[in-house]
Write a structure and sequence with these properties.
The chain is α/β, with parallel strands linked by helices. Helices cover 36% and strands 14% of the residues. Strands 3, 4, 6, 7, 8, 9, 10, 11, 12 and 13 form a ten-stranded mixed β-sheet that branches. It has a three-stranded mixed β-sheet with strand order 5-14-15, with no helix packed on it. Helix 1 packs across helix 3, helix 5 packs across helix 6 and helix 7 packs parallel to helix 8.
Amino acid sequence: MTLKIETRSGAYGLGDATLNGRELAVAAYLEQHVVPNLIGRDAGRIEDTWQFLYRGAYWRRGPVTMTAIAAVDVALWDILGKLAGLPLYRLLGGRSREGVLAYGHASGRDIEEASADTGRYIEAGYRAVRVQCGIPGLKKPYGVPSSGSAPGTKPGADAATRTGAGSGYEPAESALPAETFWSAAPYLEIVPRLFERLRADHGSEIELLHDAHHRLTPVEAARLARDLEPYRLFWLEDATPAEDQQAFELIRQHSVTPLAVGEVFNSMWDCKHLIEARLIDYIRTAIVHAGGITHVRRLADFAALHQVRTGFHGATDLSPVCMGAALHFDTWVPNFGIQEYMPHTEQTLEVFPRDYRFHDGQLHCGERPGHGVDIDERAAARFPYSPKQLPIARLPDGSMWDW
């Protein structure tokens, strides 16, 4: 979902409005509620427009509202950069770093395949890799395509190298959600073995990450975090459902493994206790889902007061527009931690010309005015909307679980 805002002067800006699996809800919110209020407003009054869309609405927050606001906000910052003739990071205050540390996604049907795939990422220049592997007895585990580790691919190239890589699953053939299955017992047994093998095969210099994807109870998450301590993870992501902020207190009591959470958050209120109590080390909130640059800048400043760093969501269910904005933000923000990076497909990159690049384990934003990502509307017209939903997860007895 892309929002294009045009001004009378001819300048225009782009914002990402993608809410994976709920795109049309955001489209309706924009078309019916937001856009009519933008006509005739001063595009340079970014702060006032944000406050108007957030504080002026009785029904605040929520993923649909905040994604729509984010699309407007990022588009207005893009316009401001173009009118000023400056890249976005300079409008925010200039560089804090020359490049942005990025991590890729390695996986395999078993530990051996996952380790081999991790090696391919290291050979491609990555300094940090998130690793998932198959779980014995579980079909369609999170983060592991059924095709396995795709030997011979080139991680970091400007194209997706495996089916469904953006979200760690293969898209359903219909618009209905695919069903996956979950059991904590075999997962908790194999993940420590996976990282023991990764350290043995690849040494201590590579940064390793892992995503539990909200699947664990607080006690299970505490056990996993403790068991992973010898392997010095960069972070354990989404160890338990994110809306239960106090659950992270139990994990902290039992482990010093760094914790990351927040890609499903849409305001600083979702993580206020987590940050104030120093229960997490990285905040994963994406610009596209958390009200845009204007709001995420405040969230990052709040996090910095408590020594929490950023680690923005960056899967391919966000468009290059979001990635471009995120990289300019990453380049500026003082308390940067790491940026998730999954290359988009060739078709997506054809639709969205961009000037950011990946080199030697880092992403680099460009110097074009604004966030540096454009849209080829003629190319986009070749790809009609095809509705999909994210999967669901069930326990072995058939009951629903957190996906």
